[in-house]
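Researcher: I'm preparing a figure for a lab meeting and need a structural model of a single chain. I don't have an experimental structure, so a prediction will have to do for now. The sequence is pasted below. Please return the structure as tokens so I can convert it later.
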Amino acid sequence: MTLPLIQIYDTTLRDGTQSEGFNLSANDKVRVAQKLDEFGVAFIEGGWPGSNPKDVEFFERARDMQWKHALISAFGSTCRVKGGPEDDANIKALLDSQTPVCTIFGKTWNMHVTDVLLTTLEDNLRIIEQSVAYLKENGKRVIYDAEHFFDGYKADSPYALETLKAAIRGGAEMVVLCDTNGGTLPWEVEQIIREMKAQITHPFGMHMHNDSETAVISSLVGVREGATQVQGTINGVGERCGNVNLCSVMANLELKMGYKCLPKGQLKHLYDLSHFVAEVANLTPDEHLPFVGKSAFAHKGGVHVAAMRRSAQSYQHVKPENIGNKMRVVVSDLSGRGNLLSKAEEHGLEVEGTEVVPVLNEIKELESRGFSFEAAEASVAIMLKRQEFGYKPPFELIDFFVNVEHRQGRGIFAEAMVKVRVQGEVLHTAAEGNGPVNALDLALRKALVGYYPRIAHFHLSDYKVRILDSDHGTEAITRVLIDTRNTTSRWSTVGAGTNIIEASWRALADSVEYGLMIAH
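Model: Understood. Here is the structure written out token by token.
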């Protein structure tokens, strides 16, 4: 049996931007649309023309662009109550957008018709049919979104079905069943679709919201029941709790259910698409999302990692490479030897199973004192590197001194001194900085740069401090996480202790040692 091709209808640029904190400029919309088209979705909903200047600009730019896979759709509503589509500003804006596809929504729930639109059930059917027909007469392909379909069906099933029939009479190529409030459960979705299909045989799609945390499963249920289009957003952004996450839908359809919804080979770019959209919107990616999160295939428990080293299938439901992700091993106090052996292999380090035991014990002891190595893999790599036979660290700390003063006429003043041994020579350097950690960093660099010129390309890109036991006040344990980068790489190191300068020094020294190791 050949399964139908499932159309992916992306509404990140319209419904997604209704998410609190998710904002896109017109230029951002163009960039995301180009990425979606390259990825291979069938439809890209660009926005609601006429509702704001950004959407107007997007459609003006989109009409002059070449699209490889996707059709651009403009979104709007049916015409006004007691009026006709021919003189409706919203319908005119849809036509002026010059998109090949128009998607309009109409009322399905009788309560919305009488209490929100303030019209009759009969007039609502008229404006649905006439709006669709008018757009069709003007050369548009029309998709009809049945707003609140499932709630409307539960309230008055005959009338809800009549609204679909009105859209079909008008010429809609697809009627989309919307769970606008996101409250319908999957078994209700299944039952309602089966009842609908007994009376309506027309292509239909799914548009689910995630207020009950069931949008993905309800969409997949809809596909199993015959839906051939799924509308949603990348990463599940959207109003309130979000729309259905298309990343999960597409991965499940292609990897688990045997359907095709993308051009061949495109699913392997899913991870990149997810992170691209988050980056353009200036949001921190949710790394715990299924399939596309950085943690989706991260393994922390020692028992899990030991099993994974024998069979990758033992604790992974799909191959992460199929969606462009990768398996990661996380090192923590829950780790076993397998975690560290995997981490050593990842960094190209030559250590034996017995050689990781001291490091494992040290990690467990340090984490009990406030360290956390999950986000500081460079610190782990350096600890393992030190176990290699014959390894000589590039420098050895002898002393350091930090002084912070307030001087009249100059304000806060920080100075650091470091004494290190490099290749048998003791170097004693000092530097001023805008703070104690910056002064330490500069003093260490001054000592080392003559021996290791590449250190000039190391840049401290982030410095995070977390108080672990705030009830201890100024005696609390402080964890410091330092992110460093050079021209090709980025790495993270950690330090912790009751003295923030000491914690910072440990993270800083590990950062420099690791950078010299990978740049060797």
